[in-house]
Amino acid sequence: MSSSPVAGRPATVKDSEIAAEQRRVDEAYARLEEMRAEAQAMIKEGYRQALAGTKGSLVDRDAMVHQAALRAQALDVADDGLVFGRLDLATGETRYVGRIGVRTREHESMVIDWRAPAAEAFYRATPEDPRGVVRRRVLHTRGHAVVDLEDDLLDPSAADSLTIVGDGAFIASLARTREGAMRDIVATIQREQDEVIRAPADGTVLVRGAPGTGKTAVALHRVAYLLFRHRRRFGSRGVLVVGPNRRFTAYIERVLPSLGEGSAALRSLGDLVDGVSATVHDPPDLARLKGSGAMVAVLRRAIADQPPGAPDELRVVHAGVVVRLGRPQLDKIRAALHRRSVGSVNTARRRVADALLDALWERYVDTGGTEPEPGAPVQGELALWEGLLADSGLAALDPDGPERPSSAADRSSRESFVKNVRGQRAFADFLTAWWPIRRPLDVLHSLGERARLRRAAGRDLDRPHADLLAGAWAETLSGPSPTLSYQDVALLDEIDALLGPPPRPSRKAPTEEDPYVVDGVNILTGEAVADDWEPEMRELTSAVERLERARRVDDEVTDTRPEYAHIVVDEAQDLSPMQWRMLGRRGRQATWTIVEDPAQSAWEDLDEARRAMDAALGGSASKRRGRKPPPRRARHEYELTTNYRNTTEIAAVSARVLELALPGARPARAVRSSGEEPVIRVVPPDALRAAAREAVETLLTQVEGTIGVIVPQPDGDWDEQEHKALAEGFPERVQVLDVLDAKGLEFDAAVICAPEVVATQSPRGLRVLYVAVSRATQRLTVLTADPTWELVLTGPA
Ligand SMILES: Nc1ncnc2c1ncn2[C@@H]1O[C@H](COP(=O)(O)OP(=O)(O)OP(=O)(O)O)[C@@H](O)[C@H]1O
Q1: Fewer CB in a 10 Å sphere around the end CB: N or C, the chain?
Q2: Is Hydrolase tagged as a keyword (predicted)?
Q3: Res 481 pLDDT > 90
Q4: 211: Cβ below 6 Å to ligand 1?
């Protein structure tokens, strides 16, 4: 393929340079084609070996096919924009830089992978520090065709024979139409960004920067870099990329695959816990409560409280004596058990059973249940026993059961007491109801009960706040399909960590002789003995009861929480302390890349969140008793300073909001001016919707790509219905979304509705507004009912 000068126009120097580069690019594609054929041949060869049929060859085949398939995939990804850069060095050497490395059959380098050390100068060389580079050339391609060039002359003294072309193609490329998904920036990574991308792999990399400085883009390219340079370390235990919400993860999901990296896990904060998913943001006051570190103590107390439906009394029978534990004793036992069961509540039933049996035995002894003299007559006791059984309705349980001891010695031994009692259905039923295997969602739901939440609140929440929370959960978590908020998900993870994993089935199949198997179910684990177990006729157990008892909690609940080798947190300024704890559990051994802009934070107590972040990054080992805290991991801090998203005109409006939100804060430097001034209009509140639709109509004719209509957080006026009404009849490239969902996104044009409402919806409303006004790449319209806002947004920055 080759590019030709535009028809009718004489060839320019640039045209001939482009034609020369096209020849080199064509050669690279031809070689890529051969490499693809080689990978396909390897896949075929793998299958051929499988037909040979030996066991060894099957293993070889799997390895071969897997490797070849990965290779073929990487080669496919490189097909678009394979080569994008060229370096001319002072030594006379020329290097091409591209998405992947390409070598000739003789193993000579044709194209260097952008992540390789030899490509570093492409991103780092400057006139002050040319690193041996005379000319850096960026090739702009479309498909396989070179369409434009842009040169930087880094060392004029050595550039005698080199042609320099270019007229700001990079800056022009920033104005490209946004089609709704983020794209990679490999060809144009800037020096300060490259320093972050290639920062040391150990410890924590903390990146700060104003909106549009490329924080997200840089974090994603860093993932691709880490996986390329440290494949073993990060490839096997995995990399997690966390974004604020689903819309955002959908927006960035194509970047890593376009860099040939499909292996990193991409999750929003609402999707980190398997089996549950957040769909709503809490209103600010609730989010602050739910996200606060005080919830740790509240949840601990909630779990240690009596579960809903737990019985208040335990009654068993031994040797004719009804032995009873009432609520006060049971509460004491529960409290002691919880002190020893943090993190293993769901697997503590053996401990629970032992504690109950101990208490029952003590009680039995106290009430004179043992024979003072072995061998003494037992007649009186037996009579008493029969009487009590009849009185308490227990007589029907098992008239011939094993609990009728045959001798006084039996009756008085602890061993026979324990054996007898734990085999009783009354005991098994009590154990499963009093210490049920719990699911995090059930625990959270139970806190919708006001009295329960007040008990759990202790001194950590005052009454109005406890009642506010209980009211919210009663409303959102009842019914068959509870609605979870982003903050709820972190609380579920906290509860899950306190409860611990559900009991696992024992390695060897349990048999009916096991002491804790009652009615065919191991009451410690909830595990059924065997599928063909049949209750005897005298058993009262119904199929439903048995099923309930056999229920294992792994339905809908995380069984194992994945841990990662590296975690990237985007929009980190918005994480609550509880969300940091959730992430910390997934990265106890991890290194981190944290990306944030404190000026965009909707979180009020940033100090508390910071402490939670430090704890998460430090790993949890420090909390283990008797161990020295691990040394604080190295932290590398970076700041990005150039705004690549907004035009200078839009950046001026966002700088005015920044000055209100955070007086004295420094905005990033925007580099592209379009001459299009933002439109700021005052409209009466009841005409706002019509004005927004009108603004969209106009913008549809002005920009080709996405248009975001950003409205206040949902309340009476700005609910789902309003979103629908605003979007009605518009093409898909128009999106209506609330301000919190706009985090991290960008649009060709943005319409901001009611900034005065956004600014006052929460104590951090001005920062939320700052996020909104910094989303647009080309056009911005702001519609306000308050004339003072017109002055604020158009006044001097
Ligand atoms: N070096 C670059 N070359 C080309 N485009 C770039 C470059 N750096 C950033 N961009 C573009 O600028 C835009 C903003 O980048 P990005 O979303 O990563 O910024 P951000 O700092 O995360 O912003 P925010 O704080 O608003 O989330 C994106 O369209 C991105 O592709």
Answers
A1: N
A2: yes
A3: no
A4: yes
